[in-house]
Sequence to fold (156 residues):
Amino acid sequence: MSNSDLDVSNSSQAIEDYAKAIYAISQERDGLVLNGEVAQRLDVTPATATSMLKRLADLGLVDYRPYKGVSLTASGERVALEVIRHHRLIEAYLSEALGMPSDRVHEEAEVLEHYISEELEALMAAKLGEPSHDPHGTPIPGPDLRPPPAAEGSSR
Fold:
């Protein structure tokens, strides 16, 4: 395993959070996503966001334009949609299969979205009948990781 592989595995949660935030912001409006918007969404300093966005560019997940902003590459969008799918399936599973109140599922899913395997994702989706929406009514990306129909700006 190379040092860059090690760096990626050690910070995959942060990478996923940044990709998800960029995706959500980009669904709210047209144009590049500004570094400050990402910083605000993730509650980090602008310098921290800029450093991470440069790293995402090095990984091929974003097109980074200094002083202008970023946009997700196709690879970056896949990362974002995968974590969004995990999050929304977890919310649906916690709500429907386990009976957790819908006002509590978001916090749990925020933590768990980074740690489920593809096998567990498939099992939850099958158990729920491949749901199209989470308990909040937000579309869930399909297993093909295509953006959900009527893509919206929620990062949930």
Observations:
- The CA atoms of residues 62 and 73 lie 5 Å apart.
